[in-house]
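Sialin
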Amino acid sequence: MWRRSILHKGLYIPWKTIFTSLPMWGVLFGHVGSYCGLKVLMTELPSYLIGVLRYSVEMVTLHIEFDGSSIRRWYIPKRYIFTGLGFFALMILYSMRASLSVAMVALVNSPEKTSLNATEKFVTCSNLLNYEVNERNFDFQGVKYDWDSTTQGLIFTSFNYGYVPTLLLGGVLSEKFGTKWLLGTSVLMSSFLYLLIPVAASWGSNAFITIRVIAGLTEGVSAPLLTLALSNWSPTSERSRIVSIIFAGVPVGMVIGAPLSGFLCSIDFLGGWPSVFYLFGIIGFVWFLFWIILMSEKPEGHPSISEEELLHIQRGKCDKPQTNHEVPWKDIFLSLPMWATCIAMTGNIFGFIFLSTDLPKYYKAILHVNIRKGGFISALPYVVEFFSLILCAYIADKLREWNKMSITTIRKIFNSVGLFGFALCLIAITQSGCRPELIIGFLCLAMFSNGFLYSGHRAAIIDINPKHSGVVCSIANAFSLISGSFSPTIAGLLTESGDTLENWNKIFYITSAVSIGCGIFFVIFGSAELQSFLACSRRCYVPKRFIVAFLGFFGLVNVYALRVNLSVAMVAMVNNTEEKANVFNSSGDECPYIIERDDDSTMDQSNLLGEKYDWDAKTQGMIMSSFFYAYFITVLTGGYFAKRFGAKLMFGAGVGSTSVLTLLTPVAVRWGVIPFIVVRALEGVGEGLTYPAINTMVSQWAPKLERSRISSAVFSGAPIGTVLSLSASGLMCKSEALGGWPSVFYVFGAIGCFWYGLWIIFIYETPDEHPTISKEELFLIYESEENQLSQKDLNIPWKKIFTSLPMWGVLFGHVGSYFGLAVLMTELPSYLSGVLHYSVEMSGLLTGLPNLLEALGGMMASYVADKLISSKKMSVTAVRKMFQSI
């Protein structure tokens, strides 16, 4: 007040100083010149434009408005830019997914089908047969491929094989590395892979499947990243609207992707169907440029955001500094509201997958709608869902602003309308008979109800845990996607006997039941209140020795899977049909009664896929044994290398090099026997390093009182790897889509390379080198004297080792164990197929069974052994001798 009074009292203006100031006169004349020109333009320009340049009145108005100098600065809220770019990101990704369904029809040579009018299979709605008109006149452009329905199904589902793992990983990555660059890279890589699809298709179905798997890996992180970005950029009062607008990109992408792809496939532009992939791939690149230029990681980091908008976004959010970046996994998995969100999303995804994958089939099989016409009808429910999303979001945010209801009540109401309304509409379809207009109307109402869900459980993901919303979204999406993927399987099983109205009604009833059950669970256990584990998040510490044991276990799973897969693959690789026929016809067969057995478990080499080679038994024996000749060399020196260069490096290099060589095996086989033997010998060199190295790792990381358990847990990877490899190899040898026996080496080699990356990132040589290990765990590991020995002393007492009777006792015990194990791993599949006449897949399963029992026995024995040692009722030597003897 005192400052204001002084200003009002001191109103004296220094007129003389102003008028004698040259700078003031400079400004004055500058303004006169500027205003004079502007006045002439604004008053005389219309006459000049109309009279001289002959412009219309509308064009003149446009010029005047453009030249006006009083237009205020145009500010676009940055959260709106984020919303728009997030919307287009999902639209592009889902357009890519939807377009493949249409493009697949164009790039595959479909066999001629009997006209619907000439069959009695679809008599359920015979009054609708006139809907089927001129379907075959719809000609698609581009190269055609002879892929059966199994191959096509594998191409579609292969996307999920990569999508689910990175979906779980996406939440963790978003917490550590942020969202801007990860999300941008996700869309960019998906677009790049989409551009490569025409080339991959020309190389074959395997290349196509590989591209799809990699695309799933890149897209899996998009939903968690976008959810975490939403928690950063959306004000609490606008959250429903922003969430709904962004996720509206899903139905819009479905609407745009399918019809536009159908149009592009039918015209001769860039080769027909390849233009679908080129167009959406280029659009993705353009989006990436806008995203990188216009967006920042968080609002406070944006260079041109206004203070008003920043305060608006941050209002209502937790002001506590986020210093703890550890994810409270235990609290998240024990949170009922989180699981309620997962269950609600399962009900949503189950119905969504059903409609998006099986609805076109329903249109054609029951309603007999023309494929081209059905494409636009299929898109209609998604258009309705889009408008529902926007409307529901506005209503939900208004209810929140009025404070008449709690946020939990709002989320439960909208989620209930979404799931229960969706279910009631599907039940109504079952009562609609053969009236397509009524059925399509109920489908549109079902998708209208579906729009409510984005203001229900979808927004609740951010409400209950804004900080870790990316992680919660990862868990919810993975859980719902895995559960929802059963929807097409159930539909396929129920329509296996025929596409009848009765069978399809069963599908609608099951989908309705899932939606109702999930909706009830969310009503009872769901919440949108901020969970306590965010406000007081305690550190979730995973003991680092358990991580070593876990990855060590999977390391040995890979070691034995890579070692024994050839035992099964060899049966499929060798052309021994004639030899088997002679054995079967011989009167001296050891098991003649088995030959008369006629079931799926008997040996039939004709269904084993892949190129065959005429190798006799001697050549096969050389190939199998070449691994062990080289293995013997490095297994002797592996202990020295582990001490000299580090056990972590040696174990990782052993598994990693063997994985790479396994990937090269099919190429070596085509070159001849000698290259094949060389590759197998080099694999033996690599694997020879693994056992000494993992023993060293266990000795460095396992406390004395846990040594039996950790050792058994790690080394149980050997029988488990054998079980998995033998069982899966037989199935892959029969798989036409995977290319037969070469897929055995490609799959296990790729898994080994992936494991190597995890090992290098998460494992450290010794406990004291680990940057985040706790003092308590470090003390527990180093409490025994042998673990406190200096790691710098690399002198190995060779003389004392070789003159130690206990060492030779351990050696002979190991020889006896390994000799029998080697016979079982290498010769048992041949015995089962050659003598007992089992098929390859049954041989693999039966060979793996003893190894599975071995793993279970090892875990039980380790627990008992540690208890006996800790109770001190028996000496360690007595315990070891007793278990070795058994």
